[in-house]
Design goal:
The structure holds two protein chains of two kinds. In chain A, β2 (82-94) and β3 form a beta hairpin. Chain A is an alpha+beta fold. In chain A, α2 runs antiparallel to α3. Chain A contains five helices and seven strands, in the order αααβββββββαα. In chain B, the strands form five sheets. Chain B has a five-stranded mixed beta sheet with strand order 3-4-5-9-10, sandwiched between helices. Chain B has a five-stranded mixed beta sheet with strand order 11-20-19-12-18, with helices on one face. In chain B, strands 13, 14, 15, 16 and 17 form a five-stranded antiparallel beta sheet that branches. Chain B has eight helices and 20 strands. In chain B, 22% of the residues lie in helices and 26% in strands. Chain B has helices at 13-16, 28-39, 73-86, 123-130, 139-142, 159-178, 230-238, 315-318; strands at residues 2-4, 46-48, 66-68, 90-96, 101-107, 134-136, 145-147, 150-154, 187-192, 197-202, 216-219, 248-251, 255-262, 268-275, 282-283, 290-293, 298-299, 302-303, 325-329, 334-338. The chains are: A alpha+beta, B alpha+beta. At the A-B interface, α3 and β3 of A face α4 and β18 of B.
């Protein structure tokens, strides 16, 4: 596809397969999702600029859901911080005990929190995404314990878009992007898992499928 | 007078700052505050050995003027944002060593629609903000380096230039206090050592500024904060309900933990409390283990319509520690309540 074609908005009548990550803003939403955005508008809190940003992120998240069949938006909260509960089909490595067998779960339930301050200042990479299910994730980039924070890098730039967080989450969980160096301060949340994956690097990545496939 | 600085004196501080060896390891704010108190015993001096982000708004609310001379953009933005929310004028002194320039900016914050610190940021400043750049005097010896992931840039300045900037800041403060000469509100003064010229230019609002440009009104709570319920404070700020859509509540730097997870049995539980930490927010009702708040279920600020039964419980039952300030934020109005019963802790 040429650059010119990529920049052209796709007509609303085009099938959903015509859309991709490059033109999410033009993806037609289902009437149910459009109604949901209008409902969220009533409860949206904060300064006007932050309200507009949150609603724009909601629209883009719903568009991403329409384009990528592996993603389902379970719930969205825009009263203060932008919060979304997301079901993502991605292989997740788990170990009930740190010395037990490795299990692969087919999907994850994620809690995404985007605070207002993240619009203006860079945030640590573990600030945004929490793995709600499954428990006992065995990843170098996810903390192992009651709270499973997923680290997407040392620091993420101010104003990062929600879709980029989701793509980075998919990359981290499927281990298409992985950081296993325990001496590197960027992103190792579970040093034991990092060492384990270094010894089992032949099992990386867990999936080679692209996010939109 | 309140002094805020999280840093402590190190041995190398002896060479550059007027301290004695026994002060090594002491907090800069504490040490400087004690000196100010000795020089002016009648002055009420407070010292906060913490970053500006961690200091309660109550500490700044009584101030007439804030002087800012920080070494990193994060603290600069946080201080400026807080001063704008409180409507407190801010004077910032800074230097550019390579150009021998001392610069003083004065934001009056008289109008939330006026200029803020982010209005003057260009792409370079935003890039450095993203890199969490710290302008360190120590960086001068090592060049620009990465320390713990953050970029440390050398200040490359001279002590005379820094003191020149401080003196210019005091001149601006004095002119503002006694209203002499041309108004200094929303102006920038730059002195260049190469040309010995001083230039004054206006600070203006940028239409596309990403800053919140928010102002908090100040109101008295119905009684001491620890005895107030969230409902009373929200009603005092916004009027009687029942529709509090878009209204939220923030207590100091606390999170409202709606749910937590047991560190022993892993079961989720309802918490419903404000806490400054996400750890140790309660006990598991099933096994008695420690509950940790999950980030996804921790809110700061907390939407009013999510408080549930906590809406009618006094803050003494809801908050771990004493609440010093509460901000109730609606769509078009934000109100700050400071605790009238909280004494000022002085040196």
């Amino acid at each position: 596809m040429s650059t010119k074609e990529m920049l052209m908005p796709v007509a609303a009548a085009d099938p959903i397969e015509s859309y991709g990550l490059w033109n999410l803003d033009h993806v037609p939403l289902s009437p149910a999702r459009q109604e949901e955005i209008e409902l969220l508008r009533l409860f949206c809190g904060g300064p006007a600029g932050w309200q507009a940003r949150k609603l724009a992120e909601v629209r883009q998240l719903f568009a991403l859901e329409a384009v990528a069949r592996r993603l389902r938006v379970v719930a969205v909260d825009v009263r203060e911080a932008f919060r979304a509960q997301i079901y993502l089909e991605v292989p997740v490595a788990c170990r009930v005990l740190p010395d037990g067998p490795l299990e692969l779960h087919p999907a994850a339930m994620l809690g995404l929190t985007y605070p207002e301050e993240a619009v203006r200042r860079p945030m640590p990479g573990y600030s945004f995404v929490e793995i709600l299910k499954p428990r006992n994730c065995w990843s170098a980039n996810a903390s192992y314990g009651a709270v499973q924070a997923l680290c997407l890098g040392r620091s993420l730039p101010a104003g990062i878009r929600v879709k980029e967080l989701i793509l980075a989450t998919y990359g981290a969980l499927s281990m298409q992007t992985v950081q296993l160096d325990i001496m590197n301060p960027a992103g190792v949340m579970n040093p034991e898992a990092a060492v384990w994956w270094q010894a089992n690097v032949d099992r990386v990545p867990l999936s080679r499928e692209p996010f939109v496939s | 007078m309140s002094i805020i600085d999280p840093a402590v004196y190190k041995s190398e501080s002896l060479a550059a700052q007027p301290i004695l060896p026994h002060e090594i390891g002491a907090g800069k704010a504490q040490s400087t505050g004690e000196l100010c108190q000795r020089l002016a015993p009648q002055t009420t001096v407070q010292a906060h050995c913490a970053s500006i982000q961690d200091v309660s708004p109550a500490a700044l609310v009584r101030m007439n003027l804030v002087f800012l001379a920080t070494d990193n953009l994060h603290a600069e933005v946080a201080a400026a944002e807080r001063c704008q929310q409180l409507g407190v004028p801010l004077i910032q002194a800074s230097v550019c060593g390579e150009l021998l320039v001392a610069q003083v900016r004065f934001w009056s914050h008289a109008d939330p629609g006026g200029p803020c610190v982010l209005c003057g940021f260009g792409s370079e400043e935003f890039r450095q903000l993203d890199q969490e750049t710290v302008y360190s005097c120590q960086g001068a010896a090592h060049g620009d380096v990465d320390r713990g992931g953050a970029r440390v840039a050398a200040t490359r300045s001279f002590s005379f230039l820094c003191s020149m900037a401080a003196d210019l800041a005091l001149v601006q403060g004095l002119r503002h206090w006694v209203s002499v000469g041309q108004p200094v509100a929303n102006t920038m003064v730059e002195y260049c050592g190469f040309t010995h010229r001083t230039v004054t230019s206006p600070l203006t609002r940028r239409a596309a500024c990403p800053g919140p440009h928010e102002r908090w009104l100040r109101r008295e709570p119905p009684r001491c904060l620890h005895g107030c319920t969230p409902r009373e404070l929200i009603e005092a700020a916004m009027g009687a309900g029942p529709d509090w859509r878009g209204v939220s509540l923030a207590i100091d730097r606390h999170y409202f933990a709606s749910h937590g997870v047991c560190t022993s049995c892993g079961r989720p539980s309802t918490v419903g409390r404000f806490s400054s930490m996400l750890r140790a927010v309660g006990q598991c009702p099933d096994c008695g283990g420690q509950l940790v708040a999950t980030p996804f279920h921790s809110h700061r600020p907390m939407p009013a319509d999510g408080l549930g039964q906590a809406m009618d419980r006094p803050l003494s039952e809801l908050v771990q520690g004493a609440a010093q300030s509460v901000v109730v934020r609606g769509r078009n109005l934000s109100v700050l309540f400071c605790d009238p019963c909280e004494g000022v802790e002085t040196l």
